[in-house]
Amino acid sequence: MRKQFAINLLSILLIFFVSTPVESSNTKKEKLEKSALVNVQTSKEAVESFVAACDEKMALNRQTNTSTTCVSGVVTTLHLTTDDYGVETIWRLMRGNTIVAFGGGYANNTTYIRDFNLPVGEYTFVIYDLYGDGICCNYGEGSFSLVNGTTTILSGGEFNYFETVDFCVEEPPVLGCMNPSAHNYNPDATEDDGSCETCSDGVLNGDETDVDCGGTNCAACEDNEGCYASSTTVLNLLTDNYGGEVSWTLTGSGTVLASGGPYPNNAVIAETFNLPNGTYTFNIYDSYGDGICCAYGNGTYSLENGGEEIISGGDYGAGESITFCIDSDEIFGCTDPNAHSYNPDATQDDGSCETCSDG
Fold it and tell me: CB within 8 A of 111, min separation 6: which ones?
């Protein structure tokens, strides 16, 4: 009989509370009444009746408010800090008429964090206060937020009986380059991440043989300027009377690939480089700053590719430099079919053949 009386009393009070928010300046006497009322309201039957009444009002509100926030992160997180009356706070996460998650029976002035891995779909989140004064700010500094990635779906604390939001979870975007003409185009990408490497970005990338030209994706470099067709590059050097002052380097992609010096006086030097397609820089130096010609001898040098001169000289002071590129169809490897290391694709033998008669 007592239980039935409490439920009947609750039904009368709910009609009043759902239509009339609690005043913010509750007196001490009202707070004592609040505590007594919540003890009645937290019975299972009472909570169900309360939620049903709130949901009916929410359904009316939804007819005039159809906006929906959509998110695409993998994890949606609820942050909840209760006020001085944590037992009053309950919440539900719904997908249609199905309860995905819920919470209640909380301690006072306590922070809770709950993560949800939600599949693609439409959802409704509702937070309730059984007394109808929210979780802030008359009786503590309670608050809540529902967050997905950098998007706050709903947050607050100052509400009456409930606060609700409809939201949807979409497929997460596939990041990548969406420019079909780029070297690194990703046909599966749904959101461009700014990583596109193109023939007009001023950067040597992809298989370009020079900045924004050459290779399989970009137009040929104009007049093939600065590019050479042979994989074999040769340095010929004759030192002057002070060969100990001479040195040189060959770099590619910021790495020193070869270097030489100091040398004997009036020495003849020959170096051969088998270079894959790419861009290179050759530097020659004189530590005294007078080159190798012509004050103290008739030194000279030349850098050639397939018999074509890349650079030559001798009267260069402290040093000089040139950047060039190789754009060749040649493939170096062992061309001997009888060798262990035979490469059927090789067009130029690089001396790497290993045979049964090589000692």
Answer: 79, 80, 81, 82
Percent of the chain with pLDDT over 90: 45
Distance CA 133, CA 31 (A): 11
What is each CA distance from 45 to 10, 49, 189, in whole angstroms?
10, 6, 51
CA 65 to chain centroid, in Å, comes to 36
Query: Which residues of the chain are under the pLDDT cut of 50?
Result: 1-29, 36, 40, 224
Q: Which residues contact 348 (CB under 8 A, 6 or more apart)?
A: 231, 232, 274, 330, 331, 332, 333, 335
- Side-chain-facing half-sphere of 266: CA atoms under 13 Å: 4
What is the tens place of the pLDDT at every residue in 106-165?
999 999 999 999 999 999 999 999 888 999 998 999 999 999 999 999 999 999 899 999
- d(Cα 226, Cα 55) in Å, to the nearest integer? 75
